[in-house]
Write a structure and sequence with these properties.
single chain
C-alpha cells in the first residue's frame, strides 16, 4: 500500500503488548498447572486452570477495548487455549484419577478418555476460528473450552478439599471428562454472555442477581464455581430439550 508521498508501506510486523501479555499469562497458568499436577499438587493445579480461565477472559476484551485486535493475537490465543484448557485439564484428571484405570487392568482406557477430551478441545478451537465473523456472538455452538476446563478443574478442587481420592471417583471423573469433551464439539447452543457489559440496559433484577451470585460465590468459591460450571454445561442439553419439547407441542397441536 502506498502512502501520501507515493512510497510503498511495509506491513507492520509488531505485536500489541497488553492483550498478548494476558494471553501469555493464561498460557503460563496452564503450563504451571501441568507441572503442579505432575508433582501431585492437584488442588493447586486445578486453581491454576481457573486462573488461566480468568486471564483468558481479559485478553479478548482488552484487545477490543483498546482496538488492538489482530490475526496474530487470535491465533496465539487459540494456541494458549489448547494448552490451558485442553492439555492441562486432561493431564490433571489423568494423574489425579483416570490413571488408576490402568492399574485396575482396564488397559489404556484412562488416557484414551483424556485424549478424546484434548482432541475435542482442538476441534472446538478450530471450528470457532473458522466461524469468527459469521456466527452469532450472543451464543456459542458447543461448550466453550474454558467452561469445559472449569468443570473438570473445579471438580478436582472440591473433591481435594473434601479429602476424596481420585481413584475412588474414577467413574464419575471419566463420565464428566467425556461429557465435557463431547459437549465442546456438539451443536448444542450455549449463551456466551458477550452482550453483558455493553451499552445496552439490563433489568435491575439481573443486576441484583449478579450481585447475589458474587456474594454467594465468595462464601465457598470452589463449590460455587463447580455448581455454576456444571449448570452451564447442562444448559446446552437443557435448552435443546426445551426447544424439542416446544416444537413437538406445536406439531401435536397442528395435527389436532
Amino acid at each position: 500500500m502506498a502512502d501520501s508521498t507515493g512510497e510503498m508501506k511495509r506491513p507492520s510486523r509488531g505485536i500489541y503488548l497488553l492483550p498478548n501479555l494476558f494471553t501469555t499469562s493464561a498460557l503460563f497458568a496452564g503450563f504451571y498447572s501441568i507441572i503442579l499436577a505432575y508433582n501431585g499438587d492437584y488442588r493447586s493445579a486445578a486453581i491454576a486452570i481457573l486462573v488461566a480461565m480468568i486471564l483468558d477472559g481479559f485478553d479478548g476484551r482488552v484487545a477490543r477495548m483498546t482496538n488492538t485486535t489482530t490475526a496474530f493475537g487470535a491465533e496465539y490465543d487459540s494456541m494458549a487455549d489448547m494448552i490451558s484448557f485442553g492439555m492441562a485439564p486432561s493431564f490433571l484428571v489423568y494423574t489425579w484419577s483416570l490413571s488408576s484405570l490402568t492399574e485396575a487392568h482396564y488397559g489404556q482406557l484412562g488416557w484414551v478418555i483424556c485424549f478424546v477430551y484434548t482432541a475435542c478441545c482442538g476441534l472446538r478451537l478450530a471450528r470457532f476460528n473458522v466461524a469468527v465473523g459469521t456466527a452469532d456472538k450472543r451464543f456459542f455452538q458447543g461448550l466453550a473450552c474454558p467452561s469445559a476446563a472449569a468443570i473438570l478443574a473445579s471438580f478436582v478442587w472440591v473433591m481435594s478439599d473434601m479429602g476424596k481420592s481420585g481413584p475412588d471417583l474414577v467413574v464419575i471423573t471419566g463420565v464428566m471428562t467425556l461429557f465435557s469433551g463431547i459437549a465442546m464439539v456438539s451443536t448444542l447452543t450455549y449463551y456466551s454472555f458477550k452482550d453483558l457489559g455493553t451499552n445496552k440496559k439490563v433489568p435491575f433484577a439481573m443486576l441484583l442477581g449478579l450481585l447475589l451470585l458474587f456474594v454467594v460465590t465468595a462464601v465457598d468459591p470452589p463449590k460455587m464455581i463447580l455448581i455454576a460450571a456444571v449448570l452451564y454445561g447442562l444448559s446446552g442439553p437443557g435448552y435443546f430439550l426445551f426447544r424439542w419439547y416446544r416444537k413437538r407441542g406445536r406439531n401435536t397441536r397442528g395435527v389436532k
